[in-house]
Amino acid sequence: MRLFSVLTATVLLVTRASAQSPVTIESLTEDLARLESVREIKNVQRTFAQLAHYGRFQLMASFFADNGSLRWGAGTGANILDDSDAAAITGPAAIETWLRTDAGKMDGLQPGSLNTWINEQPVITLSADGKSAKGRWHCLRFMGDGKGSSRIEGGIFENQYALVGERWKISLMRYYPLYAGSYRDGWKNVGGKGLPVIPYHYTPDEAGIPILNQKPSAAPEGKSLSPEELVYRISQLNEEDEVRNLVHSMGYYVDRRMWDDVIDLFTPNGTISVDSNTSPPGASGLQSVLNRMGPAGLTRGILNDHPIYQTTVELAPDGLSAIARGLEIGMIGDHANRSAQWQFCTFRHTLVRDPDTSIWKIQNLNYSRLLVAEYAAGWASGGILPARASPPTPPAFLLGFLNYSSSVPRRPESWSPLLREGVHPTSELLPDLARRLLRSSSFDETENLSSAYGFYIDDVRCSLFGDLHAQKGFKASPGIGWYRSPSRITTACAARYGPNTASLNPAPRGSIPFHWRIQLVVLTSHDGRSSTLRGRNLQTGTGLNSTSGFSGLAGFNGGIYHDQMVLEEHEGKTRRKIWSLTIDEFYWNSASWGTGWANVDRASSLSPLIKRRSAMEKRQASGSLENFPPDVSIKDPLFGTRYQGFMGGPPPSVSWPNILPMYWEYRNPVSGRVPSGGTYWGPGCVPCRVKPDWFLTNNGYEEPATGPTLISVNATIAKGDGEIGDVVVVTAKLSAGPEETIWGYVELRKGNRSANLMGEVLLDNEGFASFTVPKGDLKAGQVSQLVVYYAGNDRVKPGRGAVDVLV
Ligand SMILES: *[C@@H]1O[C@H](CO)[C@@H](O)[C@H](O)[C@H]1NC(C)=O
Ligand SMILES: *[C@@H]1O[C@H](CO)[C@@H](O)[C@H](O)[C@H]1NC(C)=O
Ligand SMILES: *[C@@H]1O[C@H](CO)[C@@H](O)[C@H](O)[C@H]1NC(C)=O
Ligand SMILES: *[C@@H]1O[C@H](CO)[C@@H](O)[C@H](O)[C@H]1NC(C)=O
Ligand SMILES: *[C@@H]1O[C@H](CO)[C@@H](O)[C@H](O)[C@H]1NC(C)=O
Ligand SMILES: *[C@@H]1O[C@H](CO)[C@@H](O)[C@H](O)[C@H]1NC(C)=O
Ligand SMILES: *[C@@H]1O[C@H](CO)[C@@H](O)[C@H](O)[C@H]1NC(C)=O
Ligand SMILES: *[C@@H]1O[C@H](CO)[C@@H](O)[C@H](O)[C@H]1NC(C)=O
Ligand SMILES: *[C@@H]1O[C@H](CO)[C@@H](O)[C@H](O)[C@H]1NC(C)=O
């Protein structure tokens, strides 16, 4: 059987690459527990932040272990790193009191108050025994009391977590404050001094340690899971990845007002709800809601960004539906009339999986507005919406987090076989489960590395982020081009940003540019060894003064990362590493905190306006790369118009409020639609079209699929030869994205995958296959569903197409 020989080849590759020892039920059980732990820790921290929005202090405190503590650096002492002046509170009861007191009237409960708490960009480190963990996060709070007072606080968490019984708890929440201020004046460095590097709990090498296969480790205490339970739980993780990607992709389409792509993501009766007003089901209802944001496409001066933060996902036990919950902050503006808005929304979206194709779609986008404010007036006085006299009711929290003290089982006991790609002979099940688990851990390892990079670049630690790259990995230096290898990346960075950046323990810095790498869409290869990442770069910063010059960094810039990551074997170690790092920036920026992204006029009521600030990276650069040419220049003619308008690219340059093109590494995840206007740049790394030997596929890695494999199927009744009589001719056409090759066999079955096999056919070069079925094989007078299955290959996803036939 050709079909299974394809699968076997893949399985062997995985076994060789990722496991020294054979995959067993025990090793899978242990690895699964590790990955589920990493996810639960993220869910704990993200839900903690979600609870703050609604002043649920008791529940927030219930996430702490009984002897867990909170240390909240006050930043008034000699040194932010010095614990001695940090508030130190132990135990859930005292922590609840502290949280409540700290929020005061800015608790999200008082009429007009706002308590937005963001925790993002996690680097999670699980201990070897799987019982404790550390996590670094960005933390940012936008708060207001509705009566004119506001607070902004930003900094870094270096937290610790412990497995207590069945659940992960916070054992230490350690906050290092870096900047603070108010809506009126913006923010600046706490203490008005230079800021140290907050110690990292990881090294570049450690940041890439795979989650799985941590041998030797403690012997498993519990019993091993059954194969069925493993299938169930691993499938749920795989599906969770798809859901998260879909929600985050939707956000990017909304930002660019790509309404056709947004609508493609919905079921035929999909809806959008805002504050419980729900659109009529279907495309026209969706279109009318989307049109309220404006017509399709962005024109000069329009900002429609909706960054998505701290998404948590809960799968239904049957794996056919899911809820995604999180925070979306609309940053809306029209530069032409100098108007802008903040829109703080909780979302709680419902998604469903099409059981036929296994493709996830949106059933309902559901937004509950926390607060909407004009940029000029801000959120301190309650904004313009919603007018609310009583405290808001939070949309339900996920994953049993509303009662975190109770010992809820971490996963349902029941199971159902949810293998996306059909059934395999038992002997192939365990290696295939290992591959599926690796695909999900690739998601978290990619986020880990992405976040680790984000923190290092904030602190401009050249050698540290150089070392996050693979030996043959490459990184773009904005406006210049790509440098390949950790040492060349490090040298380029130091040449550009100056010698202080090479020191592991640099002097305090007057200003820090923050790179929030959030809203990740991670496309994982079939074997789980490589991934393609799209991420938002929401750049902000802090400085000594909030209101002047470069140090007046309390504004925002927007960019997009297009990266790839690989599992590299080097000097006997296996590590997840950055293969390719590319940033397209800046799509927009705030001239200052005062004026925001739409040049809002706040001069009458606020502090003096700040001088217009050009690209932050450029300003910060103190050196020059003239004597250190890149391996690939963004001026390379082979890029064509790819970098036209971007800093360093071919003229004319395009800067906000003009609109730069936005590029895509994937097709629409539901419809397979290819982004128009030459903005599709996939598959493969951005500089790969200039350097084909940089393609993953030329380096022993698989290129992740860029979207669904679509199968359209036709059936016609034709005259067979005399002996057979009439036949049903079934024709299938398979398609994926440009430059994605479909090859292999397709099967025709009557009904589902375990039902009758009616034929197996090799695809032709155009992706067509045709089957001839004797009419007598189908029940006369009855509709038969004929299904064409494709197992996928190392470049494209599996697919399924069906046709109903009445003979
Ligand atoms: C907290 O309690 C756990 C279990 O009782 C114990 O293992 C741990 O050492 C304690 N932590 C601290 C900081 O006391
Ligand atoms: C949408 O349509 C599907 C299929 O017809 C149906 O099962 C489902 O109940 C509908 N959902 C809503 C919210 O109308
Ligand atoms: C500015 O233009 C937008 C449309 O882009 C409109 O919605 C908004 O009301 C206008 N604001 C002002 C203050 O005129
Ligand atoms: C949207 O969310 C609100 C608030 O949680 C809820 O009351 C409403 O039922 C949801 N709407 C849909 C269509 O799910
Ligand atoms: C939480 O769970 C515990 C233990 O199951 C139970 O005693 C308690 O009443 C629950 N609390 C809430 C608010 O549901
Ligand atoms: C993240 O990096 C740490 C080292 O800092 C490593 O131990 C851990 O396994 C990685 N976690 C994930 C989720 O990749
Ligand atoms: C910060 O502001 C003070 C006045 O408030 C000014 O003297 C100082 O030069 C400013 N520093 C910077 C770095 O702009
Ligand atoms: C199905 O039939 C229609 C009409 O004859 C034709 O346009 C289309 O190309 C066919 N599709 C396939 C997959 O054969
Ligand atoms: C597959 O089809 C067979 C035969 O029609 C049926 O008995 C079986 O329940 C189906 N299985 C699933 C998972 O739908």
In words, what does this structure look like?
The protein is 20% helix and 33% strand. It is of the alpha+beta class and 807 residues long. It has 3 domains: 2-226 and 420-698, no CATH class; 228-379, Nuclear Transport Factor 2, Chain: A (Roll), CATH 3.10.450; 710-806, Immunoglobulin-like. α2 runs parallel beside α6 and α6 (227-255) packs across α9. The protein is globular, with a radius of gyration of 27 Å. The relative contact order is 0.11. Mean pLDDT is 87; it is low at 1-19, 407-424, 548-552 and 604-621. Residues 403, 405-406 line the site of one 2-acetamido-2-deoxy-beta-D-glucopyranose.
Distance between the termini: 30 Å
Bound molecules: 2-acetamido-2-deoxy-beta-D-glucopyranose
The portion of residues assigned to helices is 10-25%
Helix-strand category = alpha+beta
Pfam family, one: SnoaL_4
Signal peptide: 1-19
Domain SnoaL-like: 34-173, 236-365
Keywords: Signal
Draw up the topology in text.
Blueprint: H1 2-18, H2 25-52, H3 57-61, E1 64-72, E2 87-90, H4 92-103, E3 114-126, E4 132-144, E5 150-164, E6 167-182, E7 186-189, H5 204-207, H6 227-255, H7 259-264, E8 266-274, E9 277-278, H8 283-291, E10 302-305, E11 308-315, E12 321-334, E13 339-353, E14 360-374, H9 426-458, H10 462-466, E15 469-477, E16 481-484, H11 486-497, E17 512-524, E18 530-542, E19 557-570, E20 573-581, E21 583-589, H12 616-620, E22 632-633, E23 710-719, E24 726-735, E25 745-750, E26 757-762, E27 768-774, E28 783-790, E29 799-806
Parallel strand pairs: 1-6, 8-14, 15-20
Antiparallel strand pairs: 1-2, 3-4, 4-5, 5-6, 6-7, 8-9, 10-12, 11-12, 12-13, 13-14, 15-16, 16-22, 17-18, 18-19, 19-20, 19-21, 23-24, 24-27, 25-26, 25-28, 28-29
Helix pairs in contact: 1-9, 2-6, 2-9, 6-9
